[in-house]
Specification:
The structure is a homodimer. The first copy, chain A, is of the alpha+beta class and about 110 residues long. Chain A has one domain (about 1-109): Winged helix-like DNA-binding domain superfamily/Winged helix DNA-binding domain (Arc Repressor Mutant, subunit A). Helix content of chain A is about 70%, strand content about 15%. Chain A has 5 helices and 3 strands; from the N terminus they run H-H-E-H-H-E-E-H. Chain A has helices at about 1-10, 15-25, 30-35, 40-55, 75-109; strands at about 30, 60-65, 65-70. Chain A has a 3-stranded antiparallel β-sheet. In chain A, a hairpin with a 2-residue loop joins strand 2 and strand 3. The first copy, chain A, is elongated. The structure holds a DNA duplex (30 and 30 nucleotides).
Chain lengths: ~110, ~110
DNA sequence: GAGTTGGTTAGTCATATAGCTAAGTATTGC
DNA sequence: GCAATACTTAGCTATATGACTAACCAACTC
């Protein structure tokens, strides 16, 4: 559980990997196609892909000499859910603070 | 921009720090109160708090000898927004795939 | 004003991460 | 079957991260 979120968030804590996620939202792509436009050596880029795959955010399959990478919907949802759960708790608290502030404002005047 | 999300996601990529965020949703708390229940030396714990503060997720103020830490709503929203933007793009694609699958299913039978 | 409490700073260590080059393997195309 | 393509593996380096201890400072409390 905990470990899942660890690798999930740290996978997204890098601009290269977030860019790959954004590319893959358009649809699956080959490693070399994803690599184009990223100014780094291929082995370095492959390590980023491995991080994404280990986190469960993407999967890949090899056909012939081409490896195709694809987003994995469930993983993205797990992270979004964490946010939803905590954001709503937080916003509930904000609302209470806002009401308190209103109250103080009214009673002062 | 990019840098903001980097530090934001890596701040959340650690169970101790996520636990602190969850504690702080209940309301502000002193360093020592937050530290209770986390089985690690205080200096180590302080570094985690610094990471959270550097990421903008929390702020802190010192009064007398007590430092009080507090969540920062805007920062949480920035991350949630990133998710919302990309999740919806992704889910749009899922819907298209589902329709395609339906179509293929129908035409085959 | 001496001791306790709450936090801070400094310094060490081990492991992880992000980058590189160089060399290797396995398909595909001519 | 030889060359080009598309990764893959191995091995190196530098920096970042997460943990610790020890020693320190500042502010309450007797």
């Amino acid at each position: 559980m905990t470990n899942q979120l660890d690798s999930f968030f740290s996978a997204l804590a890098d601009p290269t990997r977030r860019a790959v996620v954004e590319q893959l939202i358009q649809g699956p792509a080959a490693v070399s196609a994803l690599h184009d436009g990223h100014d780094m050596a291929l082995p370095t880029f492959l390590r980023h892909l491995k991080v994404l795959e280990d986190s469960g955010l993407v999967t890949s399959t090899k056909k012939g000499r081409v490896r195709t990478v694809e987003m994995q919907p469930k993983a993205l949802r797990a992270g979004a859910d964490w946010f939803e759960a905590h954001k709503s708790m937080w916003e509930g608290r904000i609302d209470r603070l806002a009401r308190l502030a209103d109250h103080l404002e009214r009673t002062r005047t």
